[in-house]
Amino acid sequence: MAVDKSIDAEPYHEGMEDIGTDTLDTVLSEASRIDPYSFSDSDVRRALSTDDLGPEDFGALLSPSAERYLERMAERARDERLRHFGNSVCLFTPLYISNYCTNGCVYCGFNSRNKINRAKLDLDQVEEELKAIAATGLEEVLMLTGESRTHSDVDYICDSIALASKYFTNVGIEVYPMNSDEYRRVQEAGADYVTVFQETYDPSKYAELHPYGNKRIFSYRFDAQERALMGGMRGVAFGALLGLDDFRNDALRCGLHAAEIQRRYPHAEISMSLPRLRPFIHHENDKNAVGERQLLQVSLAYRLFLPYAGQTISTRERPDFRNGIIGLSATKMSAGVSVGIGGHSGQNKGDGQFIISDPRSLEEIVDAIREQGLQPVMNDYVRT
Ligand code: SF4
Predict the structure, then answer these.
(1) Handedness of CA 238, 269, 381, 186 (dihedral sign)
(2) Which residues line ligand 1 (CB under 6 A)?
């Protein structure tokens, strides 16, 4: 399948920082040489017998041909996972503090034109949520907002992070992409890592799915991890929303993006997420666009191409699937999840972004991890 390399030529919106990097050109140019649909069985076998996988090998493992080699991929992924992460499984929970959004992503229930119950927690309410989560024993939290600089400005995000740092040893954020000086502020407030999903890496499809709002600027979003690292952030996470476009090409470009950032910023802690399109409020999607076998294939291919990268599996997936994948390729999972605004402490102020498929409590997930001979880990980072 040909990759459309054209990048929307829309100018950056006022205030958006252009860091002048050529990472996007490098990644899309590399991806354009690799067609995941072109690989044969022998290409897959060669990739599986290679110690240090290159981009071509990664493409082969994402190919339809590789679906016949999932068992061999899983065996090798399990070995790599064990070598680099032992038997630990990190646990965290997301905390949604606002669902106001100014973007128009056509696939999302938080889309600014959707009539949902909007809410933003004030700082007292944020603290109530944090206390409720901390009381469960979790030590890592990922704070999320919709993308509205008006409702969730950088001051509000910094104040919320500072509160989270009182209760948690590891704090991530998944908010709108920021400039490097803003990332420095949130890092100084206590954020450890930044997650930004590119959604789809095809610029034309991206333009079609993001008709307005700051998110429309493809390259500003693409460079977010790099700006975060320039701002002093320790870790950055990558993801394509699999099922929005051709998932094999999106996974290929997402993996190449992470690998290029790792090459340019060797000190960065890189991690991958595997979100898959789910049904959501006011817009039922075809949830089978990417089946579980395909999702597993992407997860295994990420593990083999990026052996040192963390990998998160979300509650969008079924308990059995999550139980299986943590022993093979994923290293981190969410637990005790509530996607509504204020849902952890029973405040229930606003609607959630998507439907979860794994409603298990933290205790149930801890038990399931132990049953597999794995070790649940609440904290893999000690603050000084
Ligand atoms: S995906 Fe994010 S940016 Fe897009 S509408 Fe939903 S919350 Fe807003």
Answers:
(1) negative
(2) 101, 103, 105, 108, 110-111, 146-147, 215
